[in-house]
Amino acid sequence: MAAGVLAAAVALPAVGGAGVSAKSAVGALDLKPEELTEPPLSERTKLVDADGKQIAQFYFENRQSVSLDKVAPIMQKALIAIEDFRFYKHGPIDIEGTARALIKNLTTGGVTQGGSSITQQYVKQVLVNAAETDEERAAATATTVSRKLNELRHAMAIEQKYTKNQILERYLNIAYFGAGAHGIQAAARRFFDKPASELTLAESATLAGAVQNPARTDPNVGPKSRALLLERRNVVLDRMYEVGVITRAEADEAKQKKLGWKDVEMPGGCEESKYPYFCLYVQNEILLNEDFGKTAEERLKLLQRGGLTIKTTIDPKMQKAAEKAIKKYVSPKDKPVAAQAMIVPGTGEIKAMAASRTFGNSKKKNEMSYNLVADAAHGGGRGFQQGSTAKVYTLTTALAEGMKFGDGFPSPDGYRASGYSTFKDCKGNGVGDPSHTVNNSSEGGGGFKTLESGTWGSVNTFFMKLQQDVGLCDTVKTAKKMGLKRADGGKIGEFETFTLGINEVDPVTVANTYATLGARGKHCKPLAITEVKDRNGKVTRFKPKCEQVLDEEVADAVSAILSGVFTKGTMSGVGGIGRDAAGKTGTTDNYTAAWFAGYTPNLSSAVSIGDPRGAFSHNLIGVTIGGRYYSYVYGASISGPIWKESMIAALKGVEAAKFHPVDQARFGGCSDKCAPKPKEKDPRDRDFDDLRDLFDPDRGDRGDRGGRGRGGDVADRDWGNWNETGLVPAE
């Protein structure tokens, strides 16, 4: 080895020229071109909204490669002047510089001096970037003669493979300049808030000087480092004058300028995104989707290093509408939190994801560290119980199984299963608990209720009886077909109170199930990404994944009933949005959470509010939200108004689509579950039993526990008749 190194020291001055000495040196050192594997550079990935505007970026290294014609000529000259001023004149090796360095290194017993050409520096950067292990990284930067000779072999191959301009372009894109900026474009923006094409002489000299020891001259570190960078800039300016690139006057003028460090933040990740909750959703879509890599590690690497441009579905106008409405009713400082998602029926495109709290890790600032709007698979938490917005699945099942608008049941204030087999899950297990009583909330009173009036009043006991009639399993299957799943990813709870919304869910999921109705029974998986362009310009488009899961006419019938919620039901105090719309309030047991979910043919949305500290230990009773005190928070208290105002703003300028007319022959009127006709006698002549039913409406419920058939106790019907005719004040 010593002989070989000695030969190098003697013969290298002739390398690149003609003659026996050059050939002898090459032979002695085995300096033959050796192919260099050049993995793609780590490039930032950016997310853009539906209009193409950037909303977030991800990177392992902040880099955005550009072609040489996008780099200011003065920048190119500055770098060549200080790093390798004979770059365009010598071959793969800078003979003078390398010979000088080798002789110096021989006298010191190691590699203490560089002398590398730009080509050699490029080779070194490639090897460092390609290193996957600590051993590989150490080998790529080892201060040994063998590493230097290996670098020379690769440099010879690179010079055969590329032109000088191509090598310069690759070096400018791979070099590290400090302050987290990899490549000339990122450095120009990080240091001076401009593209590389607009760099001035002083700025170019600054960046050219930074590549020698970027850690030492990193302006982000502090004043001392900035002073060292300024000093280094002036060295570059002097060198540019020495090699004839600029005049002395130009050098002196540039030296008079300040450093000009702008300290432009280049934030990465969702915490810095304008739409953090949506960003989290997209990020997890990529990390979970095998289309982006076979393993989670491959997918993360692609996201952080792949240089992708990911076009998303988010609509800035609709997002702003959701954020503005939430802010009006819920403060970021409140412990309860509101969250909203907007989805397009028929495509599943997510147009907005907003929440009342800022995304982040600061407890002092009351920030949220997880995705409040989505499920656990997309960075979310456990969600909140769905409440009465789940009654829609039972209503849909009833209409699909042949019930009509006027069909119904007596609905007393309390309901109990007649036995453990009253309700059966999809495995055939009895789950009805005769010891548990379901009561009506103050939103929905008792009496004989139809599919329409029971839905408008959100009557709990009506929906328990309705679910009993159509079957728990059928109801669960309908919900799943429409897109229902638990926020925590667990199995949906198939219990008798399923229809009352006992499962914890998230706004994206609920909005998506309601979008199925808005699309006339077509369910589409939530869609956040529409297009991915790779670093080479190849475009992959993602189409909606949809399936017709409900009869169109059934969906039309559901929409017709839910439309009445705004005029005759629990949202009548809030009102509609001036166009065809349907929806359902959702207030959970003990007021642990409150929802409103609704849709038009154009857009579906769901709004939840609850306390993430623990909904059962921190319910919505006697709370102050948005500066206003609430004794109880119902679905129509906060969630409903947020939904209304956000939907009006989001749909402004969008042509109003109408729901399809209902097939009255199929769904109008009633069948064998009609309300009984009033008795032909004066109510004042009612017998004792009838009057006892009037003052003890639960009597009918107690009498029905023995399972006397679908219609319930006749006494319930009498009570319902009085209620419906107005002779007794309705609840």
From TrEMBL:
Alphabetized Pfam families for the sequence: Transgly, Transpeptidase
The keyword Glycosyltransferase appears for this protein: yes
Segments of skewed composition (Basic and acidic residues): 674-719
UniProt region (Disordered), positions on chain: 670-731
Residue intervals of the Glycosyl transferase family domain: 52-240
Catalytic reaction equation(s): [GlcNAc-(1->4)-Mur2Ac(oyl-L-Ala-gamma-D-Glu-L-Lys-D-Ala-D-Ala)](n)-di-trans,octa-cis-undecaprenyl diphosphate + beta-D-GlcNAc-(1->4)-Mur2Ac(oyl-L-Ala-gamma-D-Glu-L-Lys-D-Ala-D-Ala)-di-trans,octa-cis-undecaprenyl diphosphate = [GlcNAc-(1->4)-Mur2Ac(oyl-L-Ala-gamma-D-Glu-L-Lys-D-Ala-D-Ala)](n+1)-di-trans,octa-cis-undecaprenyl diphosphate + di-trans,octa-cis-undecaprenyl diphosphate + H(+); Preferential cleavage: (Ac)2-L-Lys-D-Ala-|-D-Ala. Also transpeptidation of peptidyl-alanyl moieties that are N-acyl substituents of D-alanine
InterPro entries documented for this protein: Beta-lactam/transpept-like (IPR012338), Glyco_trans_51 (IPR001264), Glycosyltr_51/Transpeptidase (IPR050396), Lysozyme-like_dom_sf (IPR023346), PBP_transglycosylase (IPR036950), PCN-bd_Tpept (IPR001460)
Penicillin-binding protein transpeptidase domain residues: 345-602
Keywords tagged on the record: Carboxypeptidase, Glycosyltransferase, Hydrolase, Multifunctional enzyme, Protease, Transferase
Superkingdom in the source lineage: Bacteria
Record protein name field: Transglycosylase domain-containing protein
Source organism of the structure: Nonomuraea corallina
